[in-house]
Write a structure and sequence with these properties.
CATH topology: Rossmann fold
Structural class: alpha/beta
Strand content: 15-25%
CATH architecture: 3-Layer(aba) Sandwich
Oligomer: single chain
Number of helices: 9
Helix content: 25-40%
Shape: globular
Number of strands: 10
Bound molecules: 2-amino-2-deoxy-6-O-phosphono-alpha-D-glucopyranose
Number of domains: 1
Length: 248
Amino acid sequence: MNVITVNDEQEMSVRGSLILFDEIKRNPELVLGVATGGTPAGTYEHLVDKVLNEKLDLSKVTTVNLDEYVGLARDHEESYWRYIYEHLYEPLNLLPDRALVPDGLSEDLQAECLRYEKVIEQADGVDLQILGVGRNGHIGFNEPGTSFESKTHVVDLTESTREANARFFERKEEVPTQAITVGISTIMKSRSILLLASGPEKSEAVHALLSGRIDQNWPVTVLNEHPSVTLIVTKDALEKGEEDSNDQ
Ligand code: GLP
């Protein structure tokens, strides 16, 4: 694993955006796996600025969302379809016709998971997967305990994940209880992975990963088995929290 330590979130976002920019420049038909949430937002912002400044053509890039909430319509403010539209397609003035996102409103969620898995296969898989990590080590919405063999599936979100995401909604009760997520085995098929982690609340997950162990209770640790991972991590996400040091 290539570990890049940075001072803060701003530096993480700039470094991340440069990696994305270079990859798209090298392969204008890149299939880009996109994470949502707070962590990659700055990376997308810097990428958009650089793409507009340097007039890079993103019209042939395909984006593959990692996950989507069950029960939210595309145009819901907190849907992940809307997230990727607002963070990439809208500011770049691109039609979202290459934005692949699971349909969280599907009446047959199992069939939707199979369809999405096929769609990724038909795109010839993900070239570069951007990932954030949950406080409990989840990647996508693959919560602790998820099989490393999993493909796209429906998940019941843990209370801690719903609490962490409540900041994006008016009330915690509005956070959906389920989501569709690309599975761990699908993530592992990506040709390369860019993992971003910032903030002390991520330090336990980062430490689990950097310990080198592979532990189903910390889904992010599966990345120790992937041949091409770059981790950009802020100093505060590397430091052990006070609770940890008090324990010693
Ligand atoms: C979210 C998303 C993940 C994201 C993670 C961390 O719920 N489903 O794709 O990486 O949890 O989120 P954040 O970056 O907001 O801390």
